[in-house]
């Protein structure tokens, strides 16, 4: 019957082990994992002999059905999750974009109404905090965590006058996040400097997409990483940096960790599989197609640096920041690079790009690949082991992964976008079969998605294990020196002491 599947003889890959076994799925749940499983008659059987079986990918960063920089994304929750499934991703972590003056709760409900009934795979939301109004923002954050399954908030240090929070607001939000056990996820770029650079470049007559790159140098990204990790460390709040897109920003994360900050870092598929030399392309559409923030870097060693840091555990996850605008919408920035809607594709290509650039050359083993594309995200955002693991009781989201040599082309992708930043990239491996919530949604005959079958996943706050030590630290008593008059007279200045 439809709701039972046996996957036979695959090489099961979890973040901690690879072993040969069968997986039996019933009603959307993994019922058993083991050798030579005995199952009821009539069960649909898939032979995975010779192939890997991976936990479905978790894309930590997508923007479906979003309006951003006055443009609407090409993908909604239907086309976007369809593309995700075609690439082996079975959970997306999306964002509720809000504007100043709007209710966070109403914005969240609006997004839910545009995802429920459309999404073909499971999803979560992080709510953007565009301002901090004491008594309002904090109480709405409270309600979202306690009643609406939100355990993470998005903060912008860029997009001045629109989304950017100043330091005192960032500190207030970090303090509230820590109280709630919610993880702040941060877009780290210095918005004031970017604003200054844009005006300077425009005065110099630079209008093309190359100006986008020049307005946002690496150190502008790294400075914001250092600033937010410093603030988070001071208020004992963990912090997650989204789209780490430069060597300098990645190095700033390592430095923050040395200072005791609990920080996670997320590079994206675009930063691994593309680069910023495209901003100098003679073709405007081509250059603008790569415009995202932080920008991709022309330094071609960036990709390898990010991969090395994923391999060594210094960076933990990979997202796509899939935020696709049609060429016609990008064109609103034809005369002014700062008006080009920021965003690139990647929800479909993320796994194949990381495999090609990191596993194939031997920089990651398949277990690390699973950790980075799925398990770590499930752990960090508190969905583990429901997601991110192939084990009895986990959701039946899985991918049969094997040789699938092809060239990535916009004409073959599943996104509604008309451009692909990985155009022409040869990949060797990919998903052969994808199972989402126990249903085969992709196989040799193509996609068989069911609109609306994807569920919103409520995420519980990280109240206990993850936050425990960092909360304890705050209990350390401050040092107070009592100085009464009598002691003072006898006290000597240390540097005036006699031998
Ligand atoms: N950067 C992008 O490129 N797109 C969406 C939002 C963001 O921060
Ligand atoms: Zn961002
Ligand atoms: Zn072109
Ligand atoms: Zn984003």
Question: How would you characterize the overall build of this protein?
Answer:
It is a single chain. The protein is an alpha/beta fold and 499 residues long. 31% of the residues lie in helices and 20% in strands. The chain has 16 helices and 18 strands. The strands form 3 sheets. Strands 1, 2, 3, 4, 5, 15, 16, 17 and 18 form a 9-stranded mixed sheet that branches. A 7-stranded parallel sheet has the order 6-9-10-11-12-13-14. A two-stranded antiparallel ribbon has the order 7-8. A hairpin with a 2-residue loop joins strand 16 (426-436) and strand 17. Helix 3 packs parallel to helix 4 and helix 7 packs parallel to helix 8 (247-258). Bound molecules: dihydropyrimidine-2,4(1H,3H)-dione and zinc ion (ZN) (3 copies). Residues 283, 285-286 line the site of one zinc ion.
Summary keywords:
499 residues; 9-stranded mixed beta sheet; 7-stranded parallel beta sheet; 16 helices; binds dihydropyrimidine-2,4(1H,3H)-dione; binds zinc ion
- Extended strand count: 18
The coarse silhouette is globular
Bound molecules: dihydropyrimidine-2,4(1H,3H)-dione, zinc ion
Round the mean pLDDT to the nearest integer and report it.
95
Helix content: 25-40%
How much is the radius of gyration in Å? 24 Å
Range of strand content = 15-25%
- Helix-strand makeup class: alpha/beta
Number of continuous helical runs: 16
Largest sheet: 9 strands, mixed
Low-confidence stretches: none
User: End-to-end distance, in Å?
Assistant: 90 Å
């Amino acid at each position: 019957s439809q709701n039972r599947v046996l996957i036979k003889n695959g090489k099961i890959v979890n973040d901690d082990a690879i072993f040969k076994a069968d997986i039996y799925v019933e009603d959307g749940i993994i019922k058993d994992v083991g050798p030579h499983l005995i199952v009821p008659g009539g069960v649909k059987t898939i032979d995975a002999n010779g192939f890997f079986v991976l936990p479905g990918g978790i894309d930590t960063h997508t923007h479906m059905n979003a309006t951003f920089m006055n443009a609407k994304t090409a993908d909604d929750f239907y086309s976007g999750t369809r593309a995700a499934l075609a690439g082996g991703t079975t959970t997306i972590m999306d964002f509720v974009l809000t504007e100043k003056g709007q209710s966070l709760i109403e914005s969240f409900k609006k997004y839910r109404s545009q995802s429920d009934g459309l999404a073909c795979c499971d999803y979560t939301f992080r709510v953007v905090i565009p301002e901090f109004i004491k008594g309002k923002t904090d109480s709405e954050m409270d309600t979202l965590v306690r009643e609406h399954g939100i355990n993470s908030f998005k903060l912008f240090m860029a997009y001045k006058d629109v989304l950017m929070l100043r330091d005192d607001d960032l500190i207030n939000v970090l303090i509230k996040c820590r109280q709630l056990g919610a993880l702040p996820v941060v877009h780290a770029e210095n918005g004031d400097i970017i604003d200054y650079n844009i005006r300077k470049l425009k005065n110099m007559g630079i209008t093309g997409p190359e100006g986008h790159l020049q307005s946002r140098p690496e150190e502008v990204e790294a400075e914001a990483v250092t600033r937010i990790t410093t603030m988070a460390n001071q208020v004992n709040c963990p912090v997650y940096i989204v789209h780490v897109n430069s060597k300098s920003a990645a190095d700033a994360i390592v430095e923050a960790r040395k200072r005791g900050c609990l920080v996670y870092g997320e590079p994206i598929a675009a930063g691994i599989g593309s680069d910023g030399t495209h901003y100098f392309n003679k073709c405007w559409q081509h250059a603008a197609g790569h415009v995202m923030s932080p920008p991709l870097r022309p330094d071609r060693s960036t990709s390898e640096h990010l991969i090395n840091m994923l391999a060594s555990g210094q960076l933990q996850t990979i997202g796509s920041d899939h935020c696709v605008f049609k060429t016609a919408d990008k064109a609103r920035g034809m005369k002014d690079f700062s008006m080009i809607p920021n965003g690139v594709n990647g929800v479909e290509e993320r796994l194949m790009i990381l495999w090609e650039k990191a596993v194939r050359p031997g920089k990651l083993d398949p277990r690390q690949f699973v950790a980075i594309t799925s398990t770590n995200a499930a752990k960090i955002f508190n969905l583990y082991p429901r997601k991110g693991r192939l084990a009895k009781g986990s959701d039946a989201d899985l991918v049969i992964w094997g040789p699938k040599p092809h060239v990535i082309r916009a004409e073959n992708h599943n996104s509604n976008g008309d451009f692909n930043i990985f155009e022409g990239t040869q990949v060797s491996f990919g998903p052969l079969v994808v199972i989402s919530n126990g249903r085969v949604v992709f196989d040799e005959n193509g996609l068989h998605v069911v609109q609306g079958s994807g569920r919103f996943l409520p995420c519980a706050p990280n109240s206990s294990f993850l936050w425990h030590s960092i909360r304890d630290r705050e209990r350390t008593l401050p040092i107070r020196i009592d100085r009464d008059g009598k002691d003072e007279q006898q006290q000597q200045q240390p540097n005036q002491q006699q031998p």
